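Backbone description:
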Amino acid sequence: SAYRLCIMRKLPSVLARTLTSGTSASPGLPDMFEVRSKLRDIVGASTNWRDHVQAMQERKALHNLLAKRQEDLPPRRMKDSYLEVILPLGSQPEIREKYLNVHNSVRFGRILEDLDSLGVLICYTHTKQEMQPRSPLSIVTALVDKINLCQKIIHPDCDIKFTGNVSWVGKTSMEVKMHMLQLHDGDYSPVLDATFVMVARDPENRRPAFVNPLIPESPEEEEIFKQGELNKLKRIEFNTASLLKMAPTAEERNIVHDIFLNTLDTRQEGKGTVSFQSRKLPPNSVWMEDAKLKGLQICHPEERNIFNRIFGGFLMRKAFELGWALACSYGGSRPFIVSVDDIMFQKPVEVGSLLLLSGQVCYTEKNYIQIRVHSEVYNANTREHHTTNVFHFTFISENEVPQVVPKTYGGKYPIKSMLYLDGKRHFTAVMKEI
């Protein structure tokens, strides 16, 4: 099964002990409302949309608090940024409605929003300077490296605990590891592990800014820090080998050619009219061009973050829900999320934007559906489109799903072949993880 127990040994021992101890709902812990409130205080964000310009103007004065060099900032330990946050679905039934889906389980899109907020607060905790109530840093999500789940169902009536800390630091970026656990029979059991990468920028969110270095304190922490370095190198390697930069491998070219041969309409052979355009769909298959779903969002002020751009968690939730709907309609049964990976935040989304979401089934294998959601903003004044995000979701369906097939060799169809190969690469990487 894809759903295995999350491996807790990767945590620093001091943090692992904290996680496994304590079986109550921990009523003293902050909740998600407090997380978002704290973030507004740290940045000095306005709660009124009409005041947001003034609030951002006031942040300009914080420029002189920025460090000129990373060496000028005091080092931090992993436990300095460690946070535990409660989502009291069991002990406070009044908040359940926001998290509830029609299947009587928790909406995963809401969890994505919570992880995004918590990741930012963890980084502000790492970079906190004593005697400075407001941070000069603008910390934003650069990348969701991976989120792997080990439970199919998240129950809507049991308390959830999020934990996390900074696990690796570069000059201006921080890797954050977060874990989600749910209370069952008096014990918290693992639900998911998440790795985010955050970047620090100046008070106006224009240029990179230095962050405090991280000092591992034990062999376990050394291992975690080393893993953060490896993750960075893997991302560079994956991007370098991207199909946007390099041709497919020989093995991948063979895969595409085999698909082409398997979809040739051999009934035309006797008539001497076999061509690249004579195609037929194999049994129990769907053309990629017929496995798509699109959506549109108007980005209202309600969805803004502390920097008055559209909240990254909201974008993730909307992309996930479109991906889930596509997986549901494609597979013909309820899909479950297995993994989220490689979500790059390429461009911020301004309040008032028209957000266009395009979902595509890219690859299938047995019960698995690999979906790519492309997000772009449309400017009605300039009539320009700009990509903001590309999301990758791996779902598992209750039943085996049809094979998705790209049309290849001609016209616009090589694009579908590249999407197919990219989807296969993401799926293979996810399967190695779980």
